[in-house]
Amino acid sequence: MAEKVVRTRQVTLHRLRHRLKSADEFFDVLDHEQLDELEDLDFGPVTVADCSGLWVQGSFRTKAGESAEWCAAASRTLGYTVHFADTHSAGLLQLIVDEAAYAIAYGQGYRLLPGEAKDHRFGLEFAIRALDPTHVHKLMRRRPGARGRTEVTLMPNGSAIWAFDVADAYADLVGSASGKSQAIQLSRSRPTQATSVDGGVGLQIRLATDPVELVSDIRTIAGILSRERRPELEFIDRIRPIRDTELVDRLDDEIDQLLSGTPDEVSLRLSAVVPMDLAERIEDVRAFKVRLEKSNRTYDEITLDVLLNQAKVLREGPRLQAFRDGRVYAFKDEACTHPVGSSKAIQWLEATAALPEDRHFAMVDGRWYEIDADYRVRLRQRVHELLEVASDLKLRAWRAGETERDYNENSALDPDLGLVCLDRHGVKDEFHHKWGFEACDLLGPDNQLIHVKQATSSSPLSHLFSQACVAVQGLEGSVEARQRFRELVRQQGRGRELPGDFVPTKVVFGILLKKGEAVTSSTLFPFAQVALVQAARVLQSARVPIDIEVRGIERASAPQSDG
């Protein structure tokens, strides 16, 4: 029977941090501890198409007389000995393509390439340029200074990027992003079919196996990295590591002192965390080995107590450097015979620091970042984006002496505006069973939920934005609420009918500021801007996409006297 020809393979492509002058340098990049574990080790120079490289192969096997990691537990449960040996083959291909160095692992070959050899931004940089922002599947991110909180948001069928609640993602470090891409045409891609892309430290993608086509695919990927980033995805790379070496040394000195403390003394500043490149595999880990200087200890979990106990045996001064040089190895089994991966010990420690000039920093994955550095600028930018949404909706000017109730009722009397006044009419449901919730002040001609407010401070606007969130969540989450809302519209709108499948899709905030000026990021009260951005996050994370408009309401000019 003829062997099946494998024309493509799903692989993880890594780009190495440093450019290599020749393929002879590849061997120095490898994890030599892992090389020592290989049986039947074989390696040598290769040429793939027109590119030189290094191929390494071998097997990770259980030692003579030892069983696979699961055998001990099965033997105890069954009452008799179960013995099987494990053999895990490993291959690693390293290539120089147009002066850049790349690596593709096969089987257990990923164990041969240490994390510090990889370009940790490669996969993400590709995703920022190639992913379709309307068809994102996954986003993994960490909030610096939040004690290692890591969030993985999955949308199995794909969704627009805003559905991932990224309105304030400028404060997050994104570890990986995946989805579909129409921007890349590889050797074996179908022109009408989108390519699946998962970009993090490496790039998970289906590449050709033919040598000429494989090198062509790598060159295509490199070409996309020279393109402009997708504007919708630029937030992924907004936070960059600090490059000021004097500042980094100053922050390192502060953390070095903390490493001599007790958990009670330093727990507000130091946390044990999981490195981002291991976050999605941590559930498979049963044991860890921590190697710092000459110390080599085994633990069943990595906690702050563990890290501080390790630090106590280190000399003062080089403590943090020992964490930068040391490693933590993760294993599937308690006997530490089946590795899951390894990383620098510093990547298991997160720290926060503050300087007298009111600057705040966080160390994540061994690198320092300034947090909240441009918060006000980014907040104003987000508010500006919300205020710039174009609209055809007509709202009448606010007459002198009108209350909010007057304005809403009088607006509904204008036949040219097509509005229904629902001010002070509650919609009852299973939760809001006493007074109900106010779905909107006015219902627009295209069924927009319009919320109106005259404001001289932030407080009434904060209430307005909160009211809109309650309304959307109530109508979206309750069949009873939608049914009663349709009845209310029919009563107040003189027989106007909402469609049977109505759900809210657009919210409009109509705002009259104190002096009747235009609503801008300069005139909107500061706390109201924060509340608006928070409300937008909630509304744009709704089950059905919610469009948001912010409209300034003009004051009607005083009528001129005849005299």
Q: Which key phrases capture this entry?
A:
563 residues, alpha+beta, 10-stranded antiparallel beta sheet, 14 helices, 26% helix
Characterization of the model:
The protein has 563 residues and is of the alpha+beta class. The chain has helices at residues 26-29, 32-37, 71-78, 122-130, 211-224, 245-258, 263-266, 304-312, 319-325, 375-387, 404-412, 458-477, 479-492, 526-539; strands at 8-15, 39-48, 51-61, 87-97, 100-107, 136-142, 150-159, 173-181, 195-199, 203-208, 270-272, 287-292, 295-299, 327-331, 339-344, 349-355, 359-364, 367-371, 420-421, 426-427, 437-438, 442-443, 449-455, 506-513, 547-552. It has a ten-stranded antiparallel beta sheet with strand order 2-3-4-5-1-10-9-8-6-7.
SSE blueprint:
Elements: E1 8-15, H1 26-29, H2 32-37, E2 39-48, E3 51-61, H3 71-78, E4 87-97, E5 100-107, H4 122-130, E6 136-142, E7 150-159, E8 173-181, E9 195-199, E10 203-208, H5 211-224, H6 245-258, H7 263-266, E11 270-272, E12 287-292, E13 295-299, H8 304-312, H9 319-325, E14 327-331, E15 339-344, E16 349-355, E17 359-364, E18 367-371, H10 375-387, H11 404-412, E19 420-421, E20 426-427, E21 437-438, E22 442-443, E23 449-455, H12 458-477, H13 479-492, E24 506-513, H14 526-539, E25 547-552
Parallel strand pairs: 23-24, 24-25
Antiparallel strand pairs: 1-5, 1-10, 2-3, 3-4, 4-5, 6-7, 6-8, 8-9, 9-10, 11-16, 12-13, 12-14, 14-15, 16-17, 17-18, 19-22, 20-21, 22-23
Helix pairs in contact: 10-14, 12-13, 12-14
